[in-house]
Amino acid sequence: MKLKKLIAPIIITAVLTLYFLGFVAACFLIAMPFWIKALGCLIPLALAGVSIYVLIERIHEVRSGEEDDLSHY
Predict the structure, then answer these.
(1) Number of folded domains in the chain?
(2) Which pLDDT tens digit goes with each residue over 27-58?
(3) Within a domain: residue 11?
(4) Alpha-carbon gap, residue 72 to 4, rounded angstroms
(5) Alpha helices in the chain (DSSP H)
(6) Burial annotation 28-41 (CB, 10 A radius, 16+ → b, else e)
(7) Membrane spanning segments where (predicted)?
């Protein structure tokens, strides 16, 4: 039962992470000044990291039995 609630967040996080990593790879392939490449790489990597962190939080919530975030509000 808990696995069903984790499938969608895992798939969404995987797709987002692949998208962000593809963007980073594209930044290395296109000829641009270094500071633009650095920003173009750091921002997507930070967003991928945040996505993974939120996924880990969601997994902990589902495992602890707290399936609905609305109880916090």
Answers:
(1) 1
(2) 888 888 989 888 889 999 999 999 999 999 98
(3) yes
(4) 23
(5) 2-29, 34-64
(6) eeeeeeeeeeeebb
(7) 7-31, 37-56
